[in-house]
Amino acid sequence: MKESLQTYIAGTWVVGKGPERVLRNPATGEVITKVLESSHEQVDFAVRSAKNAFLRSEWAHDVSTRVHVLRRMAELLEISADEFARLETKNTGKPLRESQLDVADSITCLRYYADFIESKQPWTKEMFDGTNSTITEEPIGVCALIVPWNFPLLLGIWKLAPALAAGNTVVLKPSELTPLTMLKLGVLADESGIPGGVFNIVLGDGAVGQALVSHPDVDKVSFTGGTESGTRVYMECAKSLKRVSLELGGKSPLIVFDDVDVDIAVDLALFGAFYNQGQVCVASSRLLVQESIYEPFLERLAQRMADVHIGNPLNEETELGPLISEQHLDKVLNYIHIGIEEGATLFCGGERLLALGELYVSPAVFINVRQDMRIVQEEIFGPVVTVQSFSSEEEAVDLANGTVYGLAAGVLSADIHRAERVAKNIRAGTVWINGYHTPHVDTAWGGFKRSGIGRELGIYGLAAFSEVKHTNLNRTVAKVGWFRDTQRV
Ligand code: NAD
Predict the structure, then answer these.
(1) Of 12, 16, 161, 476, which has the most beta carbons under 10 Å away?
(2) At what angle do helices 63-79 and 96-119 cross, to 10 degrees?
(3) CA of 224 to the centre of ligand 1 (A)
(4) What residue ranges define each of the domains in the chain, with the CATH number in brackets?
């Protein structure tokens, strides 16, 4: 693993020339390792290597090599799945079973895009004027892939797999807090026979990300992170009209109608809100419950929350781990304070659990909230939910749509027609009916409104890394005859 603590550029492992960063296990505070981050010169070197590989290697034109590399990466990842899952849990603090799911989904995604490009055919048609038109999708060039800390491997692969499948070369920057599984993936990519310079990794914080985004040889930026940083990235890309995809924050509602069994509704609400300690972009952080079951819902929620198993995420039975960092803990605790100051009632939780470690907090539920409160409007990105009641379907939709975000939503109802009607009226990129969270690799992922621009996964994921070219073919060379030829004899 030694080489994988270095930066992977141009097919070799190089020692970072930027600052040293100490990575700690958020569950225990123990030092996992130290990494040397990339200097701006190394970012430049990585981009130039990617450009060189794009222009000089066969990668962009050779589908069979790309299929082979993606399949081999999936195979190698499958062999070391357990190691990857443990490393992810150590670095992020997410419960082990969640990391295992992330690795399994990553393997599926690599295979999905290998299969996709293998079977893909260009669109072609005989046109009304006797010519023949073909539409092909071509790689964009050098893609900068920027990833957050909450799903370091999976979200990296949601970008990497389609970007490589489409024939691009990439420079990927993991979050400064959680680079370890992506570095380890670099080792597997190397073993899979990927040509040097096709996949480069640089390390560092937002300043390194900014250096990457602003590099003149980057053709496309695919960014996942907060709405504030995403806005900065968008403005930077606008300067040179770089292609850009943004997967940003959310404040997603889960609407619970009164024809659903309360016990089941609470079970789904816990899953939607507190998976990965609520540090999920689509977390159902706003629970909207029909008024006739509001009281029994709260009662059952409190009972279930008292039983949630919080502890060391490496233990198989742990359901909730620590938050990612001290800075993030401060942000979450500050929002709990804001909620109380705003006049909401802290129904349960919201306390530090120092006996477990520095970064543990019990999941918090706020009631008696108003739609205009900051804890209802702003993304907290932690184990904090608000519960609001509604009386009618229209009111539920209004509350659900009443923030600047539009990433996801859930609707729970035994009446499928009603659930589908509500889903149709919700302004969000994903709506789960009678379920939550599952990302299906062959569908779509992304946000309405300030939750982002563009989509990942499925056909949309590949399209995000492709330029569309229309080629129109006249089989014979002949005059058009549009302008009169006066010199004709
Ligand atoms: P963040 O915006 O602080 O950082 C995300 C990544 O961008 C990191 O790698 C960071 O180093 C880099 N970065 C920061 N500023 C940058 C800049 N100006 N230029 C280039 N790169 C920059 O977000 P975070 O705290 O790591 O992640 C949490 C956020 O990510 C939440 O808002 C969450 O909703 C969002 N998120 C969205 C999705 C989605 O699919 N929509 C998925 C996961 C997380």
Answers:
(1) 161
(2) 160
(3) 5
(4) 7-248+451-471 (3.40.605.10), 253-433 (3.40.309.10)
3 state DSSP class of 63: helix
Edge-first strand order for the sheet with 243-247 is: 199-201, 169-173, 142-146, 220-224, 243-247, 452-453
Rg (CA), the chain: 25
- Ligand 1 site, residue 211, Cβ cutoff 6 A: no
Does residue 320's CB lie within 6 angstroms of at least one atom of ligand 1? no
Question: What ligand 1 atom has the least distance to the C-alpha of 233?
Answer: 19
Residue in 35, 224, 282, 284 to alter for ligand 1 test, most ligand atoms within 8 A of Cβ: 224
Lowest average pLDDT, out of 134-148, 272-286, 472-486, goes to: 472-486
Ligand 1 atom nearest the C-alpha of 445 is 40
Cα–Cα dist 200/197, whole Å: 6
Atom of ligand 1 nearest to the CA of 226: 32
Arithmetic mean of pLDDT, 334-352: 98
Tell me: pLDDT of 433 over 80. yes
In this predicted structure, the answer to whether residue 417 has a pLDDT above a threshold of 50 is: yes
C-alpha distances in angstroms, 348 versus 88, 269, 292, 351, 358? 30, 15, 21, 9, 20
Ligand 1 within 6 A of CB of 439: no
CB 441 within 8 Å of CB 415: no
The pLDDT value recorded for residue 408 is 98
Query: So what's the pLDDT on residue 5?
Result: 74
- Mean pLDDT value across the chain: 97
252 lines ligand 1 (CB under 6 A): no
Does the CB atom of residue 195 touch ligand 1 within 6 A?
A: no
The string of pLDDT tens digits covering residues 381-390 is 999 999 999 9
Contacts of 440 (CB under 8 A, 6+ apart): 457
Q: Output b/e per residue, 326-346; b: 16+ Cβ within 10 A.
A: eebbeebbebbeebeeeebeb
Q: What is the pLDDT of residues 225-284, one digit of tens each?
A: 999 999 999 999 999 999 999 999 999 999 999 999 999 999 999 999 999 999 999 999
How would you classify the pairing of strands 408-412 and 199-201?
A: unpaired
User: Is 420 a residue of the active site?
Assistant: no
Q: Which of 220, 223, 229, 325 to mutate to test the pocket of ligand 1 (most atoms within 8 A of CB)?
A: 229
**Is the CB of 59 within 6 Å of ligand 1?**
no
Active site residue 247: yes
